[in-house]
Amino acid sequence: MDQQLPHVVIIGAGFGGLTAAQSLKHAPVRITVIDRTNYHLFQPLLYQVAMAGLSPAEIAAPIRSVLRKQKNAAVLLAEATGIDFDEQTVNLRDEQHEEKLRFDYLVLAIGGRTSYFGHDDWEKFAPGLKDIDDAVEIRRRVLLAFEAAEKDYDPQRRRELLTFVVVGGGPTGVELAGAIAELARFVLARDFRTINPQSAEILLLEGGARILPSFPPDLSESAQHQLTELGVKVRTNAQVTNIDKNGVYLGDEMIRAATVIWGAGVRATAMTQSLGVELDRAGRVRVEPDLTIPGHRNAFAIGDMTLFLQDGKPLPGVSPVAMQMGRSVARNIQNDLAGKPYEHFRYFDKGNMATIGRKAAIAEIGKLHLSGFIAWLAWLGVHIFFLIGFRNRFAVLFNWAWSYFTYQRGARLITGRKMNLPS
């Protein structure tokens, strides 16, 4: 690449960062994409990995492979540890050394992390779902719970081992609860001799008045009905006050469960606190209308790490928002190079979907509200379309078809150096 060209540094290769890089393919710039991992992760299907429906490789693609045909883009495997806006440099660190990388334009797309609302000590008892490591750990815990129950002849302990609690009634919580129910009732039903996996109790706890509050009330009600048909017990207005090795506490009530999964909150990564700009309670950057970081005209922030108000409401932390932000930032960088003013960002909402289980989903597309099998087909089509790489699309479609017709899962592996059955 021509080293005299303006240098665009993009930190994070999620949906937003990768879209920004690809949108600058024909721009007169050189691009460096930095990420702590060497792959782009299709996060909407993480729950499928957690519930043994897909393997990690089927929802991830190497960043270098995605950008290999883009001649003006380079990829660095490193962690960004700090930013000097005055010097226009990014501090990078890998396993061997540290260095500084200069930029002319900076795009921060560092995503978010699980929020426990000030109770970080709950994390070891209730893992969240934000990356592949989380998904594999949840899969390990869920499958180990069934294995431990098969060996335990104490009825009370077996009941605890076969009780699964999902905290949070948003899309992640709903997807996980429905997937656990299907795993127990269909996939594992005939694989054990001592226990009956269909007797597993799956609880979905939501602190608010209804699950999926970002959807219209009729779709929330439909989602709850579909979960109930799968065997999930939904409890609303259930405020979690504590989580420990024994289970979940709702005030004076205790739910004894060996497996608890957290899907209740997301906050920005710790890096936002070092930027020296205004943050909201979740640590997100309050960006300007053109997505620049306040006080820094050549630095942008996009995706889950940002708070962007549109019509007085914050935009949700979903992939379509991040992708549209990435394209908007790319246009503004090209506008600046051409001497044109920045344009303000406005999100175009193409619809909202959530899957619940096999043939079960809800979808809001404009004024059209769908539920059940039709919504599930729409959800399936959208997610297959956005998977990066033909091989990934083919693998996911084949696995889903196999699971649909046979009720079998092809990724039921308990991995990890130590087995550690629940005690």
Q: Main traits of this protein?
A:
423 residues; alpha/beta; FAD/NAD(P)-binding domain; six-stranded mixed beta sheet; four-stranded parallel beta sheet; 10 helices; 27 strands; 30% helix; elongated
Low-confidence stretches: none
Largest sheet strand order: 5-2-1-9-21-20
CATH class wording of the domain at 120-264: Alpha Beta
**Annotation field: number of helices:** 10
Instruction: Please give the radius of gyration in angstroms.
Output: 22 Å
Broad structural category: alpha/beta
Kindly describe this structure:
The protein is 30% helix and 26% strand. Strand 20 and strand 21 form a beta hairpin. It has a six-stranded mixed β-sheet, with helices on one face. It has ten helices and 27 strands. The longest helix is centred in the middle third of the chain and has 20 residues, at 132-151. Among the domains are: 7-36 and 78-114 and 266-337, 3-Layer(bba) Sandwich (FAD/NAD(P)-binding domain), CATH 3.50.50.60; 120-264, FAD/NAD(P)-binding domain. With 423 residues, it is α/β, with parallel strands linked by helices. The termini are far apart.
